[in-house]
Amino acid sequence: MNRKLYHGAAYYPELWDADVIEQDIKIMKETGINVVRIGEFAWSKMEPEEGQINIGFFTDMISQLYENGIETVMCTPTPTPPIWFSYDHPERMFVDGQGTVMGHGSRQHACTNNAYFREKAAVITEHIARAVGHLPGVIGWQLDNEFKAHVAECMCQTCKTLWHGWLEERYGTIGQLNEAWGTHIWSEYYHRFEQVPQPAPAPFLHHSSLRTMYQLFSMEKIAEFADEQAAIIRKYSDAPITHNSSVAFHVDNERLFKNLDFASFDTYASSTNTPAYLINCDLWRNFKKGRAFWIMETSPSFSASLESYAAPHPNGYLKAEAVAAYALGAEAFCYWLWRQQRTGCEQPHGSVISAWGKPTVGYTNVLEVEQARKEIESVLLATIPAQAELAITYSDRSKAYLKTEPHQKLNHRGLVTAFYERFLTLGIHRDLIPEGADLDGYKLLFTPFIHYLSPDYINRAQQFVEKGGIWVVGPLTGGRTEHHTIHTDAALGQLEQLAGVETLYTYPMDGTNSIGRAFGESAPLGMWSAVFETKEAAAVGIIEEGLAPGKAFITEQKYGKGKIVMLGSMPMGEEGDMLLKKLIGHYAGEAQLSLRTNVTQGTIVAPRVGDGYTVWVIVNMDGHGGSVTISQEGYDLLKQQPLFPGKLEIGKYEYRLIQFEDTRRY
Amino acid sequence: MNRKLYHGAAYYPELWDADVIEQDIKIMKETGINVVRIGEFAWSKMEPEEGQINIGFFTDMISQLYENGIETVMCTPTPTPPIWFSYDHPERMFVDGQGTVMGHGSRQHACTNNAYFREKAAVITEHIARAVGHLPGVIGWQLDNEFKAHVAECMCQTCKTLWHGWLEERYGTIGQLNEAWGTHIWSEYYHRFEQVPQPAPAPFLHHSSLRTMYQLFSMEKIAEFADEQAAIIRKYSDAPITHNSSVAFHVDNERLFKNLDFASFDTYASSTNTPAYLINCDLWRNFKKGRAFWIMETSPSFSASLESYAAPHPNGYLKAEAVAAYALGAEAFCYWLWRQQRTGCEQPHGSVISAWGKPTVGYTNVLEVEQARKEIESVLLATIPAQAELAITYSDRSKAYLKTEPHQKLNHRGLVTAFYERFLTLGIHRDLIPEGADLDGYKLLFTPFIHYLSPDYINRAQQFVEKGGIWVVGPLTGGRTEHHTIHTDAALGQLEQLAGVETLYTYPMDGTNSIGRAFGESAPLGMWSAVFETKEAAAVGIIEEGLAPGKAFITEQKYGKGKIVMLGSMPMGEEGDMLLKKLIGHYAGEAQLSLRTNVTQGTIVAPRVGDGYTVWVIVNMDGHGGSVTISQEGYDLLKQQPLFPGKLEIGKYEYRLIQFEDTRRY
Amino acid sequence: MNRKLYHGAAYYPELWDADVIEQDIKIMKETGINVVRIGEFAWSKMEPEEGQINIGFFTDMISQLYENGIETVMCTPTPTPPIWFSYDHPERMFVDGQGTVMGHGSRQHACTNNAYFREKAAVITEHIARAVGHLPGVIGWQLDNEFKAHVAECMCQTCKTLWHGWLEERYGTIGQLNEAWGTHIWSEYYHRFEQVPQPAPAPFLHHSSLRTMYQLFSMEKIAEFADEQAAIIRKYSDAPITHNSSVAFHVDNERLFKNLDFASFDTYASSTNTPAYLINCDLWRNFKKGRAFWIMETSPSFSASLESYAAPHPNGYLKAEAVAAYALGAEAFCYWLWRQQRTGCEQPHGSVISAWGKPTVGYTNVLEVEQARKEIESVLLATIPAQAELAITYSDRSKAYLKTEPHQKLNHRGLVTAFYERFLTLGIHRDLIPEGADLDGYKLLFTPFIHYLSPDYINRAQQFVEKGGIWVVGPLTGGRTEHHTIHTDAALGQLEQLAGVETLYTYPMDGTNSIGRAFGESAPLGMWSAVFETKEAAAVGIIEEGLAPGKAFITEQKYGKGKIVMLGSMPMGEEGDMLLKKLIGHYAGEAQLSLRTNVTQGTIVAPRVGDGYTVWVIVNMDGHGGSVTISQEGYDLLKQQPLFPGKLEIGKYEYRLIQFEDTRRY
């Protein structure tokens, strides 16, 4: 890709006449759109009858766009196999958990593991790659669209067979599976892999191992499909490949992006839920570390379908969103969609231009984004996002374990976002990192809500601690094995010895009137908890009331040059929030985090690093304005004037670029 | 039919012994029941074994009733095909949206489009018509019972084939369907009509065109069944034919009644929701204009089934219901049911007589109805309901569009009833009229909640305006094409030019803090909205706050001798209610509506026209009493005394008949 | 069984290695566990491949336990047929009400009526009985586990055929079924039994008779399976047989226990819902009158599964639970489960020992139970629970009628428990007795919430009244026939003449502003009600406001030496609760109940009878402590000191054993 900041939109030229397309391109240029994404649902346009493939419309389109200064991200159209694929072939279709076979007429209706689907997907993708791969306008590729957004695990016969193969590969023999899963429970015991059921309807809950492994199987298979498709494209194109994913989909993003070239995501977070937006930036930056990510889809104003709509963004918010994204590592900020759909189930969805070719309610906000992009582009291209000192491990595989065992309807995304929000509020620059991420460069690591901690992760965290890091483990972390069973050596397995504790009891603290005290705060404790007897460790948080008074729920164990902190229970409510913030603040202090600012809630500071200087990108995200305390003289790059230490006021949705020499202290 | 007011009940003599029937007839006579409806579920009694048909029981029954002064509405028994039809024939049964095949044991279990069903339905109906069509007691016919009350669109294979035929008839070629629906979206594109799916399970929403058209198809087919059945009956009987329908069922009532002879409905509205009751009277009066309608079913006290019950009516309410219905154009007021069911799933349902032959808790109220009927009969037979000056267009086809695209769980019936209630509260006499109704005679026309406005409707409304009418369009009106797609010339298509406006934006105003001001009132604006730039039109309602400040949400365009008023947004909450009432009052004033009274809320005035005089039927519906201001000397027909101008107090559930000479002013 | 109090746990040795088992037995002995229950899900361990049966592990296990002083309740493993039974045999599996076929992987997945299931179940049970039936350690048998806990009525083809046979046996001819059910309603009418459907999906509700009879059929069949299994065991073992049932399951407990030897139940009632716990003791004591019951499963601390958990018990509660159970007639108090599951879907469930072999959060409470057991054992073995003077009839068949006809989502268990709680609060010793129980020895009988009262029950109640009993009938009692239809002679059938009343009306009183007055209290009346005209009876409760003012809702009819009290409506809310307590108190006084104590709410007194003396077991159940007034000198058996009349304070979860000479007055 070229070194620029992209401002783009999803575009469906196959749905419009030539004169409309001409009008679109004209308005795109006026608006400042410099990239469009095309092709993702266009299989029937490319291959109306089976085997009659013609990509000409799209090669022409890409050229026409390129001639007008607009580059293209080309998509494969695999989320929507045409009617010649679907009609009269229920065996090719997705089957849900109730056994219902999906029909044609929406999207993601095919089983992506179906052999014929894979064959036809390979053919169409090869045709597309061959036809457009060499075109100068093509700067990137998107595989498919939002894998597993509308569907979870497929229960078709193809998947059943693949599942048995996957299990055999994982477990070797059925005996080892029986042993690992303890299948004599409820006489589930299997003689052959082919007997292992899919988690289909049953009178009561399925076995945890079966449920979790089936999710892991499904996530692996969709990533394999991506790998397969990427390999085909690479035969014909050097342009980098991505997929527009999300934490909301049933995929393992770490695995998915492993063999792709850059990471991107879609988000339709509400303007009133800034953390749910920013968490994506702080996570996606780390799926392909050192490489910019893309926001591939976001609404210029509001999302909608036939059956629902969100509130349109307040004026000004879109600009704040874009600047925050670019500052946190995005190379592109793209809308879904350019021109409002004329037909289908997303007709009401917000767009840049209406179906009748006029500016929408969000249009002036799009212009503001373009103005901001121009203002900040040179500064941003000269800098890169600062690596955070603090990391929070994020895991979609852990999401699968929690989906199997949600205790009380716990929702992974909600838990993680609420946990993340506290770091935002405290003004601490942070990375969300995948399980397999390198821990070098971090000083403080949080590992919450991960039922199963892999030995590999523990080993790397141990090395991180040895070298001086502080590792905070919990809550809800480490209590399950790889197979989603209970440890039999200790409640938290090998972790306990490392942390210098013995877990006395594990039980749900909700409803037991448990009160914990730590860091000068007392708070109710809840969720599934581990109560500790300290061995080598020190008790830092004590249970004052409840079923285990006097025992510890937070412990500290020095290890090497660092420290392992166990957080066995979840402090609840406002008091719990305060206690957790005190905990974070405490260890941020101990770890001597420097990338921390005294910023008011609702405003963010994104630190970026240039050659011998730092730039703070400050953005007010909540529309109430805010302030940041500046402790060192800097230079306001937009106002082009020096900035003296003191309180810097930030207006409603305002952004500022402040440059500091590298000797500054935050 | 004879010129009388009917007081009737549904009766199931096939379920009882001869002595019980004899007792029933005796009590009916004492009670004043002069008509019963029989036969609607009695197929197994008439044709216990396939082909062994005997209608004798019913001919005898009708004669026995007639000899006792009780006339009969005869039903066809088609909602409940016997076991010889259902057993071992899943292909004849109704299939729901999840693909579940219905079984025997309830009602509406057959697919009414199944060819064998149609054949057997024709046979039994012909036998019945031949046997009873000539009997003097038979004064009318009811086809089937509550078409599509328990089921919506059928998904069986028969329907699939018919669906393809219906599409072919509508669209001619598959190419024209593809074009109209824009099926390249999501690669839905079809090569042959037989490929077009039914809206069966899919991973996400189906295409709007598919969903809406499938509903229109289903509504047409059930009406065709009614046509077919009516034609058979007419071979043997001159008695008029109806169907007991409702706004709650999945039918197009305008189409359904087109080829029937008179309109009737069933209602079980709560006594605390008077508008939900009255709206039926004001609508059904207009399905067969100039011909009295029937209330075919209403509860004498409370509705109930095994799984639910409603609160019994307060004493006195039933009489108010009956008098209001007769006054608003009903020829009959009939109960469901005469004798409480001994068996089945409606055993607990309220009735006139208990299963053990005794008066129920509602019985004295039924006697009150009969007394009232006798009191008012001669006055009502000498008059007819006054045509309203104000009309609100009601459309079941529009309901289908809204069911496809409900935005935020919008419910057509609730929206329309709440809109209607304001006219009631303002004391304005009103007609609800079907889309195809003649607009002659009206001065003020409201067209709310109609996603798709047909060119035919627009043309007729335009002529109405030309001749001096005021047409208020919206909210939620005109934004979709016939095929349930978005206009591409303008947000509201041809309507905009006519109304002298340009729709700048359409978007959901909920959650955007939008405030509109008009007619001296300010109110929050919500729902999916159209924001106007006035061209020739004048801005009457201005958006004061929100995303489009200064733009119009209400506009006025003079056209011919009349005026087109666009209402682009929904004023919400109590303030919105006030604003809407001001709007209605304003245009009622401009239109110089005379059929308006100064009546307190909860009391109604139904104006009727005699030969050179008018009669007001005044009824208190809410049980709190009320008053009406009389501005001209009248004559109290029940008290037989003059009535002088001033405030007339109306007691709890009281009714009054006041006659005025035609020179009066309201 | 031996004369001792058992303290036990469920144990799954087949899931653990020999060394773990050894450790378990060691800790059991330390803990005081003297009985374990084994084998209930172990079919795959016993018969891993079809026909390869080996019970050796369990015979060894029983011997090993016995050698360590631990006795065994042996289970049949029929709730979990192995994969060789399930795999590729959907026709053997349970089918739910939507037609969904259950798969392998959970439990209760087989249709228990399937012939092959019955055959294989007989084979495995015969092998087990032969192998372990003679072992000295085996003191009892449990059949299967929690019949119909996760599933209700099966809809498979096997059940369909058996259903037809059951109907034929019950009704003789299809004509008699048609007559009894009145099947001409909705043309349901059947020609052959094989045509009668199962209550599978239909457009609206099924016929009440069909729904109720299908439940009775299902309950009879599962009891027949129990009978069949018990007969096999008895060929090889003299140890008594039971099943661990519950009021929450879809079984007829009275019928189920008829041919078993002793009664047992499982309960996981919350510590905050004492009545839901105690009601089991007061009911199960009467399924096998004169024989001690078992609490076969209860949590030592909290119940949990992958998807939910309950709050752990407060410390001290478990001991109160155990003492209350023993005092009210339990011979055993057993936990589910001994060692936390390592795998499966119940991993998080509370246990005595963790999966890693350590005491759990509940362990000290288990030790307290053992201490209490030792303290009270000799006193309890020397006494038996006093027969109550007051009985409330409990019927699972009635639950089936209410499930068919729940009016407004009425829940049988909730209704009965709330009704029962009042007797507890009033300190009245009470029996819940099955419908067929002998009424001798009772003075006051309540019969609430029984839609259908059998002639046999009415005759026995009539004899009870003749001899001096007071019988309170209602609410919601007697209004349906055996076939779940409406009486046609009188609303409540033969009951009315007996009670000297005529039911004028039946209707739902909710929402009718009905107020009733009786025993000096006024209260709103609700639920489906019967309004009485007194004939011979006296009006005791009068409807003051509503639709039937002046009529009676409570009547009294003297009959023989006793009295029949009709309660036609449900007093609602706090005032209703007060009125009902006054009613109970009034008739308790008239009946001269002596087994009544002046105990504070949350504390119970369980009276037991010894040879010439009485022992009160007093237990505080709510953790707040309480008091009882002692009116006669007694002897505190635990403190070994006299107790003088006056107020006796009971501490938090404290229990006391007070002995009185038989001349005492309560």
TrEMBL record, chains A, B, C:
<keyword id="KW-0326">Glycosidase</keyword>
<feature type="binding site">
    <location>
        <position position="159"/>
    </location>
    <ligand>
        <name>Zn(2+)</name>
    </ligand>
</feature>
<feature type="binding site">
    <location>
        <position position="111"/>
    </location>
    <ligand>
        <name>Zn(2+)</name>
    </ligand>
</feature>
<comment type="similarity">
    <text>Belongs to the glycosyl hydrolase 42 family.</text>
</comment>
<keyword id="KW-0862">Zinc</keyword>
<feature type="binding site">
    <location>
        <position position="145"/>
    </location>
    <ligand>
        <name>substrate</name>
    </ligand>
</feature>
<dbReference type="InterPro" id="IPR013738">
    <property type="entry name" value="Beta_galactosidase_Trimer"/>
</dbReference>
<dbReference type="Pfam" id="PF02449">
    <property type="entry name" value="Glyco_hydro_42"/>
</dbReference>
<keyword id="KW-0479">Metal-binding</keyword>
<feature type="binding site">
    <location>
        <position position="154"/>
    </location>
    <ligand>
        <name>Zn(2+)</name>
    </ligand>
</feature>
<dbReference type="InterPro" id="IPR029062">
    <property type="entry name" value="Class_I_gatase-like"/>
</dbReference>
<dbReference type="GO" id="GO:0009341">
    <property type="term" value="C:beta-galactosidase complex"/>
</dbReference>
<dbReference type="GO" id="GO:0046872">
    <property type="term" value="F:metal ion binding"/>
</dbReference>
<dbReference type="GO" id="GO:0005975">
    <property type="term" value="P:carbohydrate metabolic process"/>
</dbReference>
<dbReference type="InterPro" id="IPR003476">
    <property type="entry name" value="Glyco_hydro_42"/>
</dbReference>
<dbReference type="InterPro" id="IPR013529">
    <property type="entry name" value="Glyco_hydro_42_N"/>
</dbReference>
<dbReference type="GO" id="GO:0004565">
    <property type="term" value="F:beta-galactosidase activity"/>
</dbReference>
<feature type="domain" description="Glycoside hydrolase family 42 N-terminal">
    <location>
        <begin position="11"/>
        <end position="375"/>
    </location>
</feature>
<feature type="active site" description="Proton donor">
    <location>
        <position position="146"/>
    </location>
</feature>
<feature type="active site" description="Nucleophile">
    <location>
        <position position="297"/>
    </location>
</feature>
<protein>
    <recommendedName>
        <fullName>Beta-galactosidase</fullName>
        <ecNumber>3.2.1.23</ecNumber>
    </recommendedName>
</protein>
<feature type="binding site">
    <location>
        <position position="156"/>
    </location>
    <ligand>
        <name>Zn(2+)</name>
    </ligand>
</feature>
<feature type="binding site">
    <location>
        <position position="107"/>
    </location>
    <ligand>
        <name>substrate</name>
    </ligand>
</feature>
<dbReference type="InterPro" id="IPR017853">
    <property type="entry name" value="GH"/>
</dbReference>
<feature type="domain" description="Beta-galactosidase trimerisation">
    <location>
        <begin position="388"/>
        <end position="593"/>
    </location>
</feature>
<dbReference type="Pfam" id="PF08532">
    <property type="entry name" value="Glyco_hydro_42M"/>
</dbReference>
<keyword id="KW-0378">Hydrolase</keyword>
